[in-house]
Design a protein that fits this description.
Structural class: alpha/beta
CATH class of the largest domain: Mainly Alpha
Low-confidence stretches: none
Largest sheet: 7 strands, mixed
CATH architecture of the largest domain: Up-down Bundle
Shape: globular
Radius of gyration: 20 Å
CATH superfamily of the largest domain: Dehydroquinate synthase-like - alpha domain
Bound molecules: nicotinamide-adenine-dinucleotide
Distance between the termini: 46 Å
Strand content: 15-25%
Order of helices and strands: EEEHHEHHEHEHEEEHHHHHHHHEEH
Number of helices: 15
Number of domains: 2
CATH topology of the largest domain: Dehydroquinate synthase-like, alpha domain
Helix content: 40-55%
């Protein structure tokens, strides 16, 4: 088992890495009461782990279809249960599931009695490399995602590779986009590692995945530690995201996987970086070849250039110019404020035409 520690604004966050779910409970000291907020899918796919949780004196709150339940009503149900069972400020919440569960559990922990200890056990790759790091908690309100939330770091995060074996391929790749992004904005060495380990990654070899997750967490943790409230360097983590938000926005009727939109967004950001002369043709192609060697399925994603452009323009963050994170070279992102709507719209039209071919 490996450990990593990073310092948040309030306290240090300990991250443990284990291969098997049976190691998880050994890491939780039974010195207080715990409310476990658990994804129902995990309870059935990892039944032995669920049995072990039940054998402890934990209060367990199961959540089915977590993204649909990521709302204030579910929070209040959990809070009512915790209050009824007499949990106090010395007790703790444990969130076990994908990003929807960890966001909700973090929000409950940050609000209950003005904040109690929070343990996070992310089970999807997206949650392990992205949602678990950076202290953002949140719930959806009305139709708006993450409209209510807080910045609140867990005290401990436990990453277990065994959970990743039960993810379907596209959910796995959904999280892998973040691993790719972290490498592209950080260093050629880490991106080359992904290229060389492509087979092992697709076969989900636990030790390889744990190494990559650790590296990805380290990258995100370093960036967010320097810039917790997203005023500077943390913006680089949005590489590909401005385009991706446009894609997600025109697909709102039948929501698509965020990581898949980000992947297309990164391809767009790479091409636009090349078109504007920031990134060389060779580097652009080399990065795209690595990205495209993984089997993403984009067949259910609607792509309409005009719609994507309009959605990017209407984003509240893009008041005077459209803010894009582009790339000079692997490991060298830059913030570019695009003021020419015409150039950008022409680029998107051409990119989408070529992408559909
Ligand atoms: N806090 C942050 O910084 C941050 C960052 C990115 C995303 N998010 C949030 O995270 C959520 C997306 O994350 P997600 O993709 O993990 O969503 P999710 O929690 O909805 O999980 C996706 C699906 O995978 C299932 N699942 C989870 N772990 C599994 C496993 N080990 N095996 C099989 N199935 C499993 C879930 O039941 C669900 O059906 C969104 O709500 C998003 O807003 C938060």
């Amino acid at each position: 088992m490996k450990n990593l520690v990073f310092n948040s604004e309030e306290h240090s966050v300990k991250i443990s890495f284990v291969n098997r779910t049976k190691k998880i409970c050994e890491l939780i000291q039974e010195d207080r009461k715990y409310c476990v907020i658990l994804d129902k899918k995990i309870s059935s796919l990892h039944a032995a782990f669920h049995e072990e949780l039940k054998s402890k004196d934990f209060l367990i709150f199961l959540i089915d279809e977590p993204e649909k339940q990521k709302n204030i009503h579910t929070c209040l149900e959990v809070i009512n249960l915790m209050q009824k069972e007499g949990l106090n400020r010395n007790d703790a919440v444990i969130g076990i599931g994908g990003g929807a569960i960890t966001d909700l559990a973090g929000f409950v922990a940050s609000s209950y009695m003005r904040g109690i200890t929070y343990f996070q056990i992310p089970t999807s790759l997206l949650a392990q490399v992205d949602a678990s790091i950076g202290g953002k908690t949140g719930i959806n309100y009305g139709n708006i995602k993450n409209f209510i939330g807080s910045f609140y770091n867990p005290s401990e995060i436990i990453i277990c590779a065994e959970f990743l074996q039960s993810l379907n391929q596209q959910d796995f790749l959904n999280g892998f986009s973040e691993v790719l992004k972290h490498c592209i904005i950080t260093s050629k060495e880490s991106l080359d590692k992904l290229k060389n380990l492509a087979g092992e990654i697709q076969n989900r070899e636990s030790n390889i995945l744990l190494g990559l997750i650790e590296q990805s967490i380290d990258i995100k943790a370093q960036v967010v530690t320097k810039d917790f409230k997203e005023k500077g360097e943390r913006k680089f983590l949005n590489f590909g995201h401005t385009f991706a938000h446009g894609i997600e926005s025109i697909n709102h009727d039948a929501p698509i996987l965020h990581g898949h939109a980000v992947l297309i967004g990164m391809l767009m950001a790479l091409d636009y970086s090349k078109e504007l002369g920031f990134l060389s043709r060779n580097s652009c192609q080399e990065i795209k070849d690595i990205i495209c060697s993984f089997s993403y399925d984009f067949s259910n994603i609607k792509l309409d250039a005009k719609g994507i452009f309009e959605a990017m323009k209407s984003d509240k963050k893009n008041t005077k110019a459209i803010n894009l994170i582009l790339l000079k070279e692997v490991g060298q992102p830059l913030l570019f404020e695009e003021t020419s709507n015409d150039n950008l719209q022409k680029f998107i039209t051409k990119f989408i035409d070529d992408f559909k071919k």
